[in-house]
Design a protein that fits this description.
- A seven-stranded parallel β-sheet has the order 3-2-1-4-5-6-7. Strands 12-11-10-13-14-15 form a six-stranded parallel β-sheet, sandwiched between helices.
- The longest helix is centred in the N-terminal third of the chain and has 18 residues, at about 70-90.
- The chain is globular and about 65 Å long.
- The chain has helices at about 10, 15-30, 70-90, 120-125, 130-145, 155-165, 245-250, 270-280, 295-305, 320-325, 340, 355-365, 370-380, 385-400; strands at about 1-5, 35-40, 60, 95, 110-115, 150-155, 175, 215, 225, 230-235, 260-265, 285-290, 305-310, 330-335, 345-350.
- With about 400 residues, the chain is α/β, with parallel strands linked by helices.
- The protein starts with a strand and ends in an 11-residue tail after the last helix.
- The chain is built from 14 helices and 15 strands.
- Strand 13, helix 10 (about 320-325) and strand 14 form a beta-alpha-beta unit.
- It folds into two domains: about 1-180 and about 385-400, Glycogen Phosphorylase B (Rossmann fold); about 185-385, Glycogen Phosphorylase B (Rossmann fold, 3-Layer(aba) Sandwich), CATH 3.40.50.
Length: about 400
């Protein structure tokens, strides 16, 4: 098979949509290197994976060969109107739009198409998005869903939203969960982590009645020192990610609580979050971290006592699965797709119920038997999201839309 992909976010996005694209393409290359994979992007971005620089007979990268495409508008025009003809020239048989979009003209060139829809949060909760964003997002996803031979949702939650909000038949939608990146794995699968041995070189970052050891990250920088015991909350300062409830619950824990590490300090609610931290007198117990890579984030998960992800609405909820894949229990929220990401390996509360969240935090923090039970559930659940196994599911689907294809697939 000769398969084309929209690679813009693969190269330019260092978070959710970019990780989805990188994980899928990487897994396809491992599972079925005999096929051709063509990546279409307007320019090389700041987040190319290591394998894109290596000589790989199965991988072909395409971008505009003209200086006239030097700004964002022209890039957008090329992605919308220029890719189909280029894909046909290279014999692409099927094109996969990895995030809500498809280029015009694929059917005219007899190229089958699949589009992945991650979420319709901008329609389910319009209050979180400006009008212009809602308008353009809706136009793009509606056009792609009408054009695609196959629509793929990354969760049953998203599939329901496509039917409910876009009025598209459920028969046209297939659910294929996203995988978790190989960096997210338990501590025992890694080399031993070097402990800090000189306490005088460690910066004190927690003031309280409990005594927490310090671990040193690979850079050995004092500013990188983290407490040996902490709670991890992954997200951002946007209203949807719900740091407000996380902090209200954390403030209800006993005074000997370990510090909390928050990732993602940016977002529309940043000033409110910082004011809440000061008002609750938590400033000396909150540590902000912005992981620069999947490896750094995975390290945070593995070192945490447990993680918290009380997002009010998600298309899938990858942080829940990432924590589980690292063997770290996670407290998540009911109400969208997080139950699909976490299954029986996560603990759930209503997203705005700080009292219930505080109760579950206490159990995960102080009840070793309960914590151990949750940790034991992690590996079996994470095994169902193997990148290479899910790649075979995709290959089987691609084969349905490419005549006389030999799907194959050899695990490596």
């Amino acid at each position: 098979m000769v398969i084309g992909f929209d690679a813009k976010r693969l190269l330019h996005n260092n978070t959710g949509l970019g990780n989805y694209a990188r994980n899928l393409i990487s897994a396809l290359l491992k599972r079925a290197p005999k096929h051709e994979y063509h990546l279409f992007a307007p320019e090389a971005g700041p987040h190319p994976p290591d394998w894109i620089h290596k000589s790989h007979a199965s991988l072909v990268y395409h971008h505009p060969q003209t200086a006239r495409l030097a700004n964002g508008l022209r890039h957008s025009i090329w992605r919308t109107y220029g890719i189909a003809r280029l894909a046909a020239r290279f014999g692409v048989q099927l094109y996969h739009g990895l995030s809500h979009e498809l280029p015009h003209g694929l059917s005219r060139h007899r190229i089958s198409s699949i589009v992945t829809v991650h979420d319709l949060i901008f329609l389910r909760h319009p209050e979180w998005f400006p009008f212009a964003d809602r308008f353009f997002y809706r136009q793009k996803v509606m056009r792609a869903c009408r054009q695609a031979n196959q629509i793929v949702a990354i969760s049953e939650c998203t599939a329901r939203d496509i039917v409910d909000l876009l009025k598209i038949s459920r028969e046209r939608i297939r659910v294929i969960y996203q995988s978790v990146s190989p960096e997210f794995k338990p501590q025992e699968a890694l080399p031993p982590f070097k402990q800090q041995t000189n306490s005088q070189q460690a910066e004190s970052i927690y003031s309280g009645s409990a005594s927490f050891g310090l671990i040193t990250r690979p850079s050995n920088s004092k500013s990188d020192a983290l407490p040996q015991n902490f709670i991890l909350a992954v997200g951002s300062c946007d209203a949807r990610k719900n740091y407000q409830t996380v902090l209200r619950a954390y403030a209800q824990l006993p005074e000997d609580r370990p510090p909390m590490v928050l990732t993602g300090r940016q977002g529309s609610e940043r000033k409110k979050i910082e004011a809440q931290i000061r008002a609750c007198k938590l400033a000396d117990q909150i540590i902000w971290r912005q992981p620069k890579s999947a490896q750094e984030l995975a390290h945070l998960y593995r070192q945490a006592r447990f993680s918290v992800y009380l997002s009010r609405y998600e298309g899938f909820g990858l942080p829940v699965l990432e924590s589980i894949a690292c063997g770290t229990p996670v407290l998540a929220a009911y109400g969208s797709s997080l139950e699909e990401a976490g299954g029986n390996a996560a603990v759930y509360v209503q997203p705005n119920d700080a009292e219930a969240a505080a109760l579950e935090m206490r159990r995960l923090l102080y009840d070793d038997a309960f914590h151990h039970c949750q940790a034991q559930l992690c590996a079996p659940w994470a095994a169902g999201f193997s990148p290479v196994d899910l790649a075979q599911t995709w290959l089987d689907l691609y084969g349905q839309w490419v005549p006389n294809s030999n799907v194959g697939g050899t695990s490596t």
